[in-house]
Structure formats: structure tokens, C-alpha cells
Amino acid sequence: KPRIFSGIQPSGGLTLGNYLGALRRFVEKQDEGIETIYCLVDMHAITVWQDPARLRQQTREGAAAFLAAGIDPARSILFNQSQVSAHAELAWIFNCVARMGWMGRMTQFKDKAGKNSENVSLGLFAYPALMAADIMAYHATMVPVGEDQKQHLELTRDIAIKFNNDYKVDFFPVVEPLIEGAATRVMSLRDGTRKMSKSDPSDQSRINLTDDADAIAQKIRKAKTDPEPLPESIEGLRDRPEARNLVNIYAALAGHTVEQVVRDFAGAQFGTFKPALADLAVAKLSPITEEMNRLMADPGEIDRILADGSERADAIARPILEQVYDITGMIRSR
Ligand code: AQP
């Protein structure tokens, strides 16, 4: 029986990129009736220093975003990673299976470490092993993610295969990335070649799920574009990353194909297209923002939902982890 696992880092407020690339599809999978496990990966977040009070706030806000977007805690398991210790325990074992060379090839590590790789945390380097543990602790086989996570999922697969080979078992399943839809990579509003990211220093580069209608409209109005009108056909977007990004966002929000959006706005100036996009974004996002605000008024209730989700997650992961300890030769006599 397929089981889905995916997570989002509470390393900042969630963005339109997280919503279109991940959250919205998490809800679709839940509604398809598949067993779904979703996690606020707080231990991933601290691979880059987080202020403790803000981390707590962002974790609750992330949970509120899941709920507001349509995750039903009765049908999905929703929890935060640090409450289920199987993640950290399995990650250690995977640290011993994964190879330094594999980790060193991860483009996200290279991007985040930049030229200063001597000075970033060891956790940032080992991040993909924890991610592999997140997924394999549940024997999950399907992982809905944005395009940027594809390389990490390939590494998850490599770690699982190497574990199976090293211990001569057929224990961990082969995982499939689910990367589908019009907005698997939402780009920055300031630079169409960089992904929209919650940790970008410029707030103008992203739409936050907590932005109000005015902020959304203002950010889209100011979004970087080129001086040309929108093209008559999709090929005309090829070398225009900013234009392509806005069209992609429109398509994803409207539930239309990119072709359809290009047809509808063929030859339109950005002065026409941007207000239409802003109206659409506000119409789709403001109900979520309002619901998030309502939920955030009762943090105790959010904590209760996370506690319940953590217990249910632990009930699945713990027996799998115990088998891993057995396979690897650890004495478990207490
Ligand atoms: N711009 C994006 N377009 C489409 N999908 C995206 N995702 C993130 N950004 C985009 C997807 O959201 C999920 C959760 O991502 P994450 O929070 O674990 O970390 P990230 O990918 O590193 O996202 P950020 O926003 O860039 O966080 P920071 O700034 O902390 O690194 C994933 O499925 C991801 O694909």
C-alpha cells in the first residue's frame, strides 16, 4: 500500500513556492485517499541557525498553513520532526551508510554553503541523510516535492539501496519523487533564475502566505520583468525567465495550462497582466491567510494537533527503526 511522506522546513514563513510546489499537492494526495504523513522538519531548519522563539513560532505557523491549505489531521498525520526521535536515530545510521562524496555533490549544499563551506554546520552537509531517514522511517514510497528536491530524493534512493546491499536485506523500498504540475519551481520575483525561497534576504522576492492583499499586489506590481509584451506562443517565453515565471504562477493558481494562459494573454503588456495575476493570487491566497490567522490565535490547539500527529507517526516509525537496529547488530535488551 503506497504511503506518502513529505515535509517543509519551518525556517521562515511559507512562500507561494512552498504552497504551489508542495503544500497544495500534499492536499491533493490526501484527498486521493492515499496514506499521507506530513512533517514540519524543525531539525532540518536548525542546519542554519534559528532563533528559538522564532523557530517555535514558525513551526506553529507552518502547521497553521498546512491546516489552512486543507490538510485534515484526521485523515493525514501532521507533526513536527523533533517529536519523533526515530528521524534522528535513523539519520545517524544513514550518516554511516552515505558517502562523503555523495553529499559533496548536492547542489543545495553548494548553493547554501557558497564559498564559505568550511564554516557551515556539519548538519547542513548531512542534511540529505536526515531527509532520507524522514522518508525511510515510514517506508514511504512516494514523496511529493518541488523540482529542487529531486537530487536529494535520488540520494535517498542511493542510501536505501546501499543499506540493503551492505546488510544483504531487502528492507528499504525504492522511493519515487512526485514532481508534477505547472509550478514545480516557482522563481524569485526579483530574479527569474533563482528559486523563490523563504530565506532570501529580500522580502520583495517572494509572496509569503501571511502577506495581505495589498502586499501581494504591490510585490507583483514591482516584480522584475522585461519591456516586451507577453508572447503569442509558449516558445516566446524561452529566454524570458521573469515573464515565464509570472505566467507559470498564473497557470498554477488558475489551474490552467501554461499554453492556455499564453493564449489568453497573447500580446498583453505587463500593465494588464500583472493586475490580473495579483487579483488571482489574492483570490486564491487570502482565504488561506485568513484561516491561518484564525488558527494562530490558539497555539495550544496547534500544539495538540502536532502532539497527536507525533504519536501516530511514532507508532509507525518505531517498529521500523527497531528492525533497523536488529539488522545492524545493535543489542536492544532493555
Ligand atoms: N520556489 C519553489 N518552487 C516550488 N517548490 C518549492 N519548494 C520550496 N521552494 C519552492 C518546495 O517546498 C517544499 C519544502 O521546502 P523546504 O522548506 O524543505 O526547503 P526549501 O526547498 O529549501 O525551501 P525554501 O523556501 O528555499 O527554504 P529555505 O530558504 O529555508 O532553504 C519542498 O518540496 C520544495 O521542493
TrEMBL record:
UniProt keyword list: Aminoacyl-tRNA synthetase, ATP-binding, Cytoplasm, Ligase, Nucleotide-binding, Protein biosynthesis
Sequence motif: 'HIGH' region, positions: 10-18
Residues reported in the UniProt entry to bind ATP: Q9, P10, S11, G17, N18, G146, E147, D148, V186, K195, M196, S197, K198, S199
InterPro entries reported for this sequence: aa-tRNA-synth_I_CS, aa-tRNA-synth_Ic, Rossmann-like_a/b/a_fold, Trp-tRNA-ligase, Trp-tRNA-ligase_bac-type, Trp-tRNA_synthetase
HAMAP family, A to Z: Trp_tRNA_synth_B
Family listed: Belongs to the class-I aminoacyl-tRNA synthetase family.
NCBIfam families: trpS
Descriptive protein name: Tryptophan--tRNA ligase
Protein species of origin: Tabrizicola soli
Upper lineage: Bacteria, Pseudomonadati, Pseudomonadota, Alphaproteobacteria, Rhodobacterales
